[in-house]
Every structure is written in C-alpha cells, then in structure tokens.
Amino acid sequence: MEPQAPIPTEPQATEPTTPVPAPVLPAAPVVPGAVATPPAGTPDPLAQPANKRFPTWLKVVLGIVAALIIVIVAIFVVVGQATKSAAKVSDQFVTDLQADKPSDAYQLASADFRSVTDQDQLSKLFDSVSPALQGKTTITGRAINKGGGKNTVVIVYSVATSAGTKYMRLTLILQKDATWKVEGFKSSDTPLDANYLTTN
Length: 200
Prior knowledge:
Structural class: alpha+beta
Number of helices: 6
Distance between the termini: 155 Å
Oligomer: single chain
C-alpha cells in the first residue's frame, strides 16, 4: 500500500477574547460639613506667606498712632462739650458786634469787664472795629483754664472779610450763678492763640 499523504487539517476557529473590566469600587459616602484632610506636608493655599505678614514693629507703631488719635478725639469732644454753654454767649457777643449793638453786647459783659469799660467806651470800640469784622465767622480754637480759682474759657474766631481773614478772641468767665460772661475781647489781623492764659 502506498502511504497516504497527510490530510491537512483545517485551522480551528478561535472565539474572540472579551476583556474583563476592572471592578468598580463604590465611592466613599459624602458627609455634609466634613472637610477632607490634605496629606501631611501639603501647603495651605490660604496661609499668608511669612514675608507678607506685618512685622512686630509695624504693629506697635500702628497701635501707638491709633491710641494717639483716640486721645486727640476724646480731648476735642470733652473740650467741645465743656465750652458749649460759653460758646453760646460768645457767639451772641460776636453777633451783636457785627450788628453794631453795643448795648446788647454790654449785657453779656462780666462785672470785671464793666469795671474797666463802660457802655460808651464799648460803643466807640464797636464803631471802630465792627466795619472791619464783617463776614462769616468760624470758631478756630477753644481752651479751658482753671487758674487763679476761676473757670475761664477762651474762644478764638476767624472772620472771612472782604479784606482778608481777621481774628477775634473772647475770654469768658463762669459766674457764681453758673452763667458765662464776657471777660475780655481782642481783634487782630493775625491769628490769635486760645491758650494765651497758660502760655503767658
């Protein structure tokens, strides 16, 4: 018998391989209000860089400046309140001066004022200074003095006149009946100091 030639075998069809998906793990539950903790060593994005922080000396300076401002404002408020009643009398005297009403102004004068200046002298004074002191008045200074057993308030005005700024200074004294009276008056072409009683 002749040997038979090998019969070629037909290649076997293989089934396509389907990739197996990786298992999906359930997400961690979200708890309201919970904050995730970053890994150790992670920089805080809200942290202020060290080189941008206020140095200690600057904080001290700012604190001192703030304290000084508070003290100045407090003094201003205290002086303003303490001189409020005196300023009403002073304002009325200035109004009478500008209106050339010496008789009305004389009623605001203290006994010491009247002892050295009578009403006729005050009238002559008003006639000479009133025309030069016409304009808007502004209080530019106040001072309190308790020297010599007297409660004294000094009020300084600036007057915006057509010929330039003029100045007036009124000294008032507290009477025994708790009313304020004008103790002295001065006008000038140059600024006047409200603290003249303590500096002179």
